[in-house]
Request: fold
Amino acid sequence: LPTSPIFDFIDNASMKIIAGVAERFISDIRAGTPAIITFDAFPDTTITSTVRYVHKSIDPESRTFKIEIDIPNPQRKLAPQMIANIKLLRRSFEDQIVIPLDAVIESEEGRYVFIVSSKSQAEKVPLQFMAIYQDSVLVDGLKPEQQLIIVGQQELTEGDPILVQNKSEFSN
Reply:
């Protein structure tokens, strides 16, 4: 007489999340990518982890790549099939310069800003955008010691004399 199990023992002290990542983002995701996870059932609980595995083939129906994230569940509050909200850190920039987006001038020549040269003149510096977030832009092309002109730059031409005012003088 065949027997069937009456119940299953489940050890859910740690769990695995399987999620789909859109094709356009997958090049930024790899094993070790940081993940921040929340659950609708526990909105005040945040779990940090990393992507453990990225599947190599795309799901033909959802057009997403499956990723796996291991998460701790020591209090065993989480249950299988719960919906997780996952934020993945796609890129990380260290020691980069962030400037106000309003400081950037765009023309047929490309994007640029004006800085104060060593001769106290306006100097045009071409830029490359690395990332934009709200009113700020992470740029390549500036050095930390350069003084960025953020007021009146639209009216400047290269070589114009510059009189530097500190913030307290400018706001009076």
The chain is about 5% helix and 45% strand. The chain has two domains: 14-88, 97-171. The two ends are 93 Å apart (CA to CA).
